[in-house]
């Protein structure tokens, strides 16, 4: 699959992370469909992105966005993750589904990883979507950098996890379309927990150093 010739759907596309990823994909010339619980909110956000990027961006309710996408990103809050995927399982059958969700909690000491019965959000997605090709990616990318129009290059590696080589290759290629970004295969789905949990460490780094830290893998 070549990302530039396919429609990219972003479920939860009106939140900071989803909107930021959609912005970068639209700038790269991809056809993007923003999904949201509210079609009206998605359409408004899509119109704003199309205006600032000059790209092809549409908005729709999550179910309609999922149906339209060849490659579907899940960028929704953790507390609505399982419910949404269970509802959309029939629509997502046969598609590459990229889970970008980090199960995190927050208290006075900062961010921390939440336990997930399946092992990780990505593994939960795989369990709920047995007929989809589930990949984990884009967990550690700063929403602030993605949304900042002054940032021309998002200099970070995207750790891509999955058991389907063709699907992980497609998601690595998707990451590569964003200037500065590089998709790196990081293991099978069973390794997704530590990648999702790493976001808690990055949040701590950002708070200490007033930064928007990402990940770079050396010698690859």
Write the topology of this structure.
Layout (H helix, E strand, L loop, with lengths): L6 E5 L4 H12 L3 E6 L2 H15 L3 E5 H7 L2 E4 L6 H12 L3 E4 L4 E4 L2 E4 L7 H8 L4 E4 L6 H5 L8 E7 L2 H12 L4 E5 L6 H18 L11
Protein name: NADPH-dependent F420 reductase
Keywords: Oxidoreductase
GO molecular function, one term: coenzyme F420 binding
Short summary:
The chain has 220 residues and is α/β, with parallel strands linked by helices. 40% of the residues lie in helices and 22% in strands. Helix 7 links the parallel strand 9 and strand 10.
Fold and architecture overview:
By secondary structure, the chain is an alpha/beta fold. It has one domain: NAD(P)-binding Rossmann-like Domain (Rossmann fold, 3-Layer(aba) Sandwich). The chain has 8 helices and 10 strands. The protein has helices spanning 16-27, 39-53, 62-68, 81-92, 121-128, 143-147, 165-176, 192-209, and strands spanning 7-11, 31-36, 57-61, 71-74, 96-99, 104-107, 110-113, 133-136, 156-162, 181-185. Strands 3-2-1-4-5-8-9-10 form an 8-stranded mixed β-sheet. It has a two-stranded antiparallel ribbon with strand order 6-7. Strand 6 and strand 7 form a beta hairpin. The longest helix is centred in the C-terminal third of the chain and has 18 residues, at 192-209. The mean pLDDT is 96. Pfam families: F420_oxidored. Residues 7-103 form the Pyrroline-5-carboxylate reductase catalytic N-terminal domain.
What tags apply to this protein structure?
10 strands; eight-stranded mixed β-sheet; Rossmann fold; two-stranded antiparallel sheet; alpha/beta; 220 residues; single chain; 40% helix; 22% strand
């Amino acid at each position: 699959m070549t990302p530039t010739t396919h429609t990219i759907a972003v479920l939860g596309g009106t939140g900071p992370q989803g909107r930021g990823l959609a912005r970068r994909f639209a700038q790269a010339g991809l056809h993007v469909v923003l999904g949201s619980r509210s079609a009206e909110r998605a359409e408004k956000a899509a119109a704003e992105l199309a205006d600032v990027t000059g790209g092809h961006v549409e908005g729709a309710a999550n179910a309609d966005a999922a149906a339209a996408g060849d490659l579907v990103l899940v960028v929704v809050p953790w507390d609505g993750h399982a419910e949404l995927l269970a509802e959309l399982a029939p629509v997502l059958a046969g598609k590459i589904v990229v889970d970008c969700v980090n199960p995190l909690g927050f208290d006075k000491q900062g961010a921390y990883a939440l336990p997930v019965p399946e092992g990780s959000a990505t593994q939960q997605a795989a369990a709920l979507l047995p007929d989809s090709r589930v990949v984990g990616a884009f967990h550690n990318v700063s929403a602030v950098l993605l949304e900042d129009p002054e940032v021309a290059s998002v200099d970070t590696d995207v750790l891509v996890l999955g058991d389907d080589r063709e699907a992980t290759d497609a998601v690595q290629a998707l990451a590569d379309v964003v200037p500065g970004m590089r998709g790196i295969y990081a293991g099978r789905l069973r390794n997704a927990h530590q990648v999702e949990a790493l976001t808690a460490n990055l949040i701590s780094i950002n708070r200490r150093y007033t930064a928007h830290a990402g990940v770079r893998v050396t010698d690859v």
